[in-house]
Amino acid sequence: MSRTRSISQEILVHFASKIPEKLSSKWTRFVCVSDTHNKIDRDKYQVPNGDVFRKYLTSISLQKKFLILMIFNTVVHAGDMTGLGKVEQVRDTVNWIKNLPHKYKVIIAGNHDLTLDETFYEKNWNRFHYNKEDPKEAINIIKNAGNGVVYLNEESFTIPDKGIQIWGSPWTPEFYEWAFNGQRGQCLKEKWGQIPQTTHILMTHGPPYNILDKTHHSGENVGCEDLLERIKVIKPYVHIFGHIHEAYGVLEKTWESTDQDRKKTIFINASTTTIEYEPENAAVVFDYPPTHPL
Ligand code: 5GP
Ligand code: MN
Ligand code: MN
Ligand code: MN
């Protein structure tokens, strides 16, 4: 299949505090948050939704309103959506996310979302909770949220009419035996082996090794080596994660390759809360061009 490409078809990354007005309705705007840990005050924390166009909307005719509604804004959440995965905490986060004005809300779990890892929770619940929660109820809240909420647990979602393929996974390398923790080496390697080669946007809770993965405590890079190896093969256009709160930021990596396809990956550590679990980091926004970039 041939696609037309031009030099302007680059993914553009912005921080929520300053989003430019250049998006056309053919682009897809993604708004990334992560590690919100039930710390979001809905009235204070701004999740941008192409505000520019909404401003535009109020000052022009109804005719244009239709065009504006066609913008495919998507919000993504890269896990640790709760403090400790209690049913009420899951409900609280899902209610917040599902009521955002974005068309799709693509979310994954993280190591703190304990009940969403049902097998883990059945064995370990009393390490974390005084009373046992019902993991099935928590999972149902997410799966049946509706209103554009898409929950990815080692699976893909392709944005309808856009063909942008997103794959998401909650797994991270073992650290104090939390939910969705896997041993470095064989276990995680098999997990990452499932990521389809065709993935355009990858979402995992944790970073790959040596990319926005430096911990404040020890200064170590604690990202997953096996994930990095898989990423070198797939070269997704964007990789969104969180987990290492203090490594919030964006990094672009150009691949040494003679291929015509997939020349670089933009890595986004979207951790919304800081190392003190304060929701101080702005959502990271990127605009995905009408055709896939190089
Ligand atoms: P969380 O508990 O929210 O998953 O992670 C919170 C913090 O724990 C991170 O910001 C990071 O400082 C630390 N942390 C998480 N995973 C690891 C890990 O695998 N190794 C180390 N050394 N620290 C981690
Ligand atoms: Mn976290
Ligand atoms: Mn923790
Ligand atoms: Mn985490």
TrEMBL record:
Species name: Rhizophagus irregularis (strain DAOM 181602 / DAOM 197198 / MUCL 43194)
One short Pfam family name for this protein?
Metallophos
Q: Which residues form the Calcineurin-like phosphoesterase domain?
A: 29-246
The name this protein carries in UniProt is Metallo-dependent phosphatase-like protein
Q: Per its UniProt entry, which superkingdom is the organism in?
A: Eukaryota
State the Gene Ontology terms under molecular function. hydrolase activity
- InterPro entries from the entry? Calcineurin-like_PHP, Metallo-depent_PP-like, UPF0046_metallophosphoest
The record's PANTHER family line, in alphabetical order, gives: CALCINEURIN-LIKE PHOSPHOESTERASE DOMAIN-CONTAINING PROTEIN, METALLOPHOSPHOESTERASE
Lineage, top ranks? Eukaryota, Fungi, Fungi incertae sedis, Mucoromycota, Glomeromycotina
